[in-house]
Amino acid sequence: MSRKRMPSAPPAANLELAAGGAACAAPSLQAEKPALGRAPGTLYLVSTPIGNLEDISLRALRVLRQVRLVAAEDARITRKLLDHFAIPTQVLTYRLHSRCNQTEELLACLRAGQEIALVSDAGTPAIADPGSRLIAAAIAQGVPVVPIPGPVAAISALVVSGLPTGRFAFDGFPPRPRADRQAFFASLARETRTILLYEKASCLHATLEDLLSALGPDRALAIARDLTKPGETIYRGTLGQAIPPFRRRKPRGEFVLVIAGSPTPDAPSPE
Ligand code: SAM
User: Fold this and answer.
1) Which CATH architecture best describes the domain 154-259?
2) In what order do the strands lie in the sheet with 69-72?
3) Which of 17, 51, 109, 189 is the most buried (most CB within 10 A)?
4) Do the domains spanning 43-151 and 154-259 agree at the CATH topology level?
5) Mean pLDDT computed over 169-191
6) What residue spans of 38-126 are helical by DSSP H?
């Protein structure tokens, strides 16, 4: 991105802002008609901290300050972040699954030359978070898309795990339906790369039990809890060792599981 200030934005998109409100019901984004020959604006994919606010980059702060609009997973959460850094930029909740056609409206603003930053509640947008549809649509329409790199919980967990980092497979959250889970964990048994999973505290124990059934007690893993937060803890051991403590105590916090790959691709499931 050029270091010069962005050209002053066209008279604004009319926005439904923050406050968890009815972004769909109210007047939403209204892009100007693009002037003849005007270049489209840029969609910035801005990574934000996963806990420790010091992890935001100088470039992320500059872009968040300069853009016309921040499209956020939850405007209330992002408003707090921007307020912490005294950034007055307007924030809109980007509702991926809503009926209103926000993707089209955001694209119209971009085509009209406006600069927009896409952020998620934490970490990198579109990584187990909304955003990929807007990104693909922007690319398809010739809108420049620029990443502003920063924290990803899975990558921090991988590097701190002590497990091989050369080849890894990120699988996001395990599926919830029972039948899908069986197929999912069975496929992990054949995975030779280091496996990265996200999991909620309420599902952690069930997922560890399913991993134990599929991969056996001796498989090495690391469990990264609340990375970059005051309670950050990294458990390193085997699946067999990891389960009892979580049986005894209800887990709290945010978790990434890093699991050693299978030594052989055809490793049979222990069941
Ligand atoms: N976009 C985010 C990223 O770049 O990592 C991920 C968002 S996903 C909806 C949220 C999940 O990421 C959590 O349930 C947890 O598995 C993981 N996560 C996020 N922050 C974390 C942290 N500080 N420590 C451990 N895991 C975290």
Assistant:
1) 2-Layer Sandwich (3.30)
2) 90-93, 69-72, 116-119, 43-46, 145-148
3) 109
4) no
5) 95
6) 58-66, 75-84, 102-111
Of the pLDDT bands very low, low, confident and very high (cuts 50, 70, 90), residue 31 is low
CA 238 from centroid of its chain's CA atoms: 27
Determine the residue type at 269: S
Contacts 24+ apart (CB under 8 A), 32-40: 32/112, 32/113, 33/112, 34/111, 34/112, 34/113, 35/113, 38/112, 38/113, 39/113, 40/110, 40/111, 40/112, 40/113, 40/141, 40/142, 40/143, 40/144
Q: Is the pLDDT of residue 3 over 60?
A: no
Considering only CA atoms, which residue is closest to atom 16 of ligand 1? 198
User: Is the pLDDT at 16 greater than 50, yes or no?
Assistant: no
Radius of gyration, CA atoms only, the chain? 21
Neighbour count for residue 199 (Cβ, 10 Å): 20
Token pair belonging to 39: 């270049």
For the segment 227-246, what is each residue's pLDDT rounded down to a tens digit?
A: 999 999 999 999 999 998 88
**Three-state secondary-structure class, residue 82:** helix
Lowest mean pLDDT among 37-51, 57-71, 164-178: 37-51
CA of 153 to the centre of ligand 1 (A): 5
Nearest one of 120, 123, 31, 39 to 68, comparing CA atoms: 31
pTM, to two decimals: 0.86
User: CA 41 from chain center: how many Å?
Assistant: 23
Query: Could you tell me the distance, in angstroms and rounded to a whole number, from the CA of residue 48 to the centre of ligand 1?
Result: 11
Q: Tell me what pLDDT residue 13 has.
A: 36
CATH code of the domain made up of 43-151: 3.40.1010.10
Locate the domains of the chain by residue range.
43-151, 154-259
Atom number, ligand 1, closest to the C-alpha of residue 224: 25
Task: Please identify, by atom number, the ligand 1 atom nearest to the C-alpha of residue 51.
Answer: 23
